[in-house]
Amino acid sequence: MSGADQAGRSGVYGTEGVASAANSPGARAYPAHWQDSDGNFWLFGGTGVATGTAIGQLDDLWEYGGGEWTWVGGTDQLNEPGVYGTRGVPSPGNLPGGRLAAAAWAGPGGGVWIFGGTGIDADGSRGYLDDLWNYNNGEWTWVGGPSVLGVFAGVDRGNAGVYGTEGVAAPGNWPGSRFDAVSWVDASGDLWLFGGEGLDSAGTFGPLNDLWEYTPATGMWAWMSGANVVNAAGVFGTRGVFAAGDVPGARSGAAGWTDGTNLWLLGGYGSDATGNQGSLDDLWEYSGGEWAWVGGSDAYDDPGFYGVQGLPGPRNYPGSRNGALTWTDPQGAFWLFGGEGFSCQRGSVVFGDLDDVWRYSTGQWAWEGGPSYPNSPGAYGATGSAGSGSFPGGRLWAAGWFGPSGSLWLFGGFDLNAAPPGATGNLLNDLWRFQPPPEARPAGAGAPSLRPTAGITGLAVPAGRTGAVTLRPPGGWGGVKPFYFGANGGTCGPTD
Length: 496
Hints:
Blueprint: E1 28-29, E2 32-35, E3 41-48, E4 56-65, E5 68-73, E6 99-100, E7 103-106, E8 112-120, E9 126-136, E10 139-144, E11 150-152, E12 156-158, E13 178-179, E14 182-185, E15 191-199, E16 205-215, E17 220-225, E18 251-252, E19 255-258, E20 263-271, E21 277-287, E22 290-295, E23 321-322, E24 325-328, E25 334-345, E26 348-361, E27 364-369, E28 399-402, E29 408-414, E30 427-434, E31 466-470, E32 484-487
Antiparallel strand pairs: 1-3, 2-3, 3-4, 4-5, 6-8, 7-8, 8-9, 9-10, 11-12, 13-15, 14-15, 15-16, 16-17, 18-20, 19-20, 20-21, 21-22, 23-25, 24-25, 25-26, 26-27, 28-29, 29-30, 31-32
């Protein structure tokens, strides 16, 4: 829809507060992003380029609406320190320091909340932040958390968490410094925070699996679940069963969403059931103070199973990944795009930047678009023109929102294969729109009937498979490639 089809492009800021078709944020990854009550998209900070070619932490605030970008606030400079002002008092002069991978919530009343990330404190020191900010009515408020970073082990700069008693909110409780955590807003307007990479109760740095709840009405945090130390392994229990002892392993870069009542968590990079670390694809649901392992693997580096494009199925699930982009549509379905992780290509497990699109609804996944293999370059086509041959290249740490007419929007991110190679860290500022198929497919809708047919003889066995056959329904697949049904399908892929 807009932006450059090349990596590393600087921003066009225009006049602060004035929308223009010529405006565009600079290339970036890891920005905080949210959607307001009017359906407009907001973008804050990240790591990227401003007006030049250097890379650093950004503190610029942008709004996209009516097909145009507006530079709303912040600076067009890199690595700016925070201006905290007086705790709890909004001011036009306040501004969070440049940062990446902060947690963000679009809260009630049209405001937004931002917590932590990796960035710059009030003294200009760089490290892991744990400050909480609120943006409303055009002004920032420093709500809480330290404005200056501590020092741990003489190297890491940040602040340890103060956990208190599990399940009990208290004025002294505060999550430790962290980045790349998962955030949700529940139906009552409370903010939820899970994991990320940061500092635990002892100031030790690593992946976390602690779950926190913040109640804006009281201004207090409560540690609700998980460990108060880093590197905790997952406790998976029985699939689909909520249990007090079950909990996802420590991780960063996970995807999260809410169905209006419960919290959902998918993948990331962290600890599996045995404490080994890698890319994850486990799916979890949190309700009533307990976790349930819903799907995916309890081990790391799983390639997933794509099935037939557009058709939900009980065996389908995305491969292990972190840094994916997520949306929730008005029907409550969850959408997933890309990230860095694993897939299956020609029977082998492959790793890289993904650009596949998935939909999760009524307990089943459907692969809705994009290649089923990683590291594909983008195919841009003409600006503003949709086409089956156009798609973003594989990427992670992008931003996005759910637009009118059921469209999914995507901005920027990091693409290992962006052109020109190596340009400013392969950071992008391209804006894309994906229009899903017109009807929402219930589970199993449109699936062909594969009834046994007597008298089939002479079926060819594809190379590299033993005893496999190719099934093709009457009339063919209508352009969809056939799949294999057999045994010994290689290191990944169909084996039933």
